[in-house]
Design brief:
Order of helices and strands: HHHHHEEEEEEEEHHHHHHH
Distance between the termini: 47 Å
Structural class: alpha+beta
Radius of gyration: 22 Å
Number of helices: 12
Strand content: 5-15%
Mean pLDDT: 87
Largest sheet: 4 strands, mixed
Low-confidence stretches: 38-45, 260-266
């Protein structure tokens, strides 16, 4: 049963809702209505228009792009109910949150937990204002699923580290200002020899090579470090703590990749509404094909149920101090549902759902094809489904290996 709010609490929430509505009316450009946020996706910040910039700055000034982050670091300082109101009112107005990317999804929450006060003061405010873009230096050619096998080495040189090695699948590396990376500082211990540090992407010795994907996009890169100097103050936590910090960050990543975060925003219009534009309908407006109708209904029910479950799980985790291993369950189910939706879209649109280029295809049709191909990677990056199954078995279900 829902908890009844006291009159004063209801009045406060109503007043705050009015404040958010007035803010949107005064600051949100009409030309951006019902459009997504390119800066939080795979495109580079160079595509930001004057209207996008104005909206980002307005939201960043309020801290509402990171509504529950501490106000002292540039966040909104809102409680859960107020943050939900911001989300609801943005959605009603066709507005989007212009503050995104890996700094918000992964690095910021991790730094708030493990970073020094100086590091928080330096790095969190620019993230809250959407002024800086971060990328992730984790996977290597021989350290993907077995991430702890990474070999990029940071040699202690007194007042700095000298980093040499290679990272791959660096999302948005060609656009990033900074990189949060896990590197080896001790070769004698696989896990305890890993440290977490921050690297400026414009430092001499950093080279980025984009990788072209089957979808036609190049969101992933190879990144090479050759005698890259990293100041000692860029070490997060202590030497050897990188594996602990790195795993925590992955929990934030998986939660956002699942459906509790970016996946939900990517889904867009309901499949039933899209199907009515492409498929025959009955006199009452229902889809004439009963098999397709059942497929869509089955998916929409499971997707809605998953979103509600994901939101509850995320809220419960935050109430207990942050994300948890449940992020692996969310990531596994959410990304699988995302791939299923992409396949259903093709079935609904038929040949119009397989266009690659040409005036006979709409922008949304072309975007869906690329999204379908790009989506094949979602069950691999951020921790493959097989890795998530292992985590779920061991950490969630308590199933231990017995020799």
């Amino acid at each position: 049963m829902a908890t009844q709010l006291e009159p004063d609490a209801r009045a406060d929430e109503n007043a705050f809702r009015t404040e958010v509505q007035e803010f949107i009316a005064a600051n949100f450009p009409e030309e951006l209505k019902n459009r997504g946020n390119a800066l939080a996706g795979v495109e580079g910040p160079s595509k930001e228009t004057p209207a996008q910039k104005a909206w980002r700055e307005a939201v960043g000034e309020r801290g509402w792009g990171t509504p529950t982050w501490p106000k002292q670091y540039g966040g909104g300082g809102l409680n859960k109910a107020e943050a939900r109101i911001v989300e609801q009112e943005f959605a009603k107005a066709g507005a989007y949150n212009p503050i995104g990317g890996m700094g918000v999804m992964m690095f910021g929450p991790t730094l708030l937990e493990f970073g020094s006060e100086e590091q928080k003061q330096e790095h969190i405010p620019p993230i809250c204002r959407g002024e800086i873009r971060w990328c992730q230096g984790y996977s290597e050619p021989n350290a993907g699923s077995d991430l702890a096998n990474l070999q990029t080495f940071a040699e202690d040189k007194g007042d700095h580290y000298l980093v040499n090695g290679q990272k791959t699948w660096t999302s948005g590396g060609q656009w990033a200002d900074k990189c949060f990376a896990i590197v080896r500082t001790d070769k004698s211990d696989k896990h305890k020899g890993i440290s977490f540090m921050l690297i400026d992407m414009d430092t001499p010795g950093v080279e980025v090579r984009p990788i072209t994907m089957i979808s036609g996009m190049s969101p992933f890169c190879e990144t090479f470090f050759t005698d890259v100097k990293v100041p000692k103050e860029n070490l997060v936590g202590e030497e050897g703590q990188g594996w602990t910090i790195g795993k925590r960050l992955l929990q934030h990543e998986r939660t956002n990749l699942s459906g509790g975060g970016s996946m939900a925003r990517m889904m867009g219009a309901s499949l039933s509404n899209i199907a009515k534009k492409y498929c025959e309908t009955n006199e009452d407006g229902s889809l004439a094909d009963p098999i397709l109708r059942d497929k869509i209904a089955n998916f929409e029910i499971r997707w809605s149920s998953f979103l509600l479950t994901a939101r509850r799980a995320v809220d419960e985790s935050k109430a207990q101090g942050g994300v948890s291993e449940i992020s692996s369950v969310l990531k596994k189910v959410g990304t699988t549902l995302g791939q299923e939706r992409a396949e259903l879209l093709i079935e609904i649109r038929g040949l119009q759902g397989l266009g690659w280029q040409g005036d006979e295809f709409s922008d949304s049709e072309l975007e869906s094809v690329r999204g379908w191909l790009f989506g094949k990677a979602t069950t691999i990056y951020g921790g493959s489904t097989e890795i998530q199954n292992n985590i779920i078995a061991k950490r969630v279900l308590g199933m231990l290996d017995h020799q």
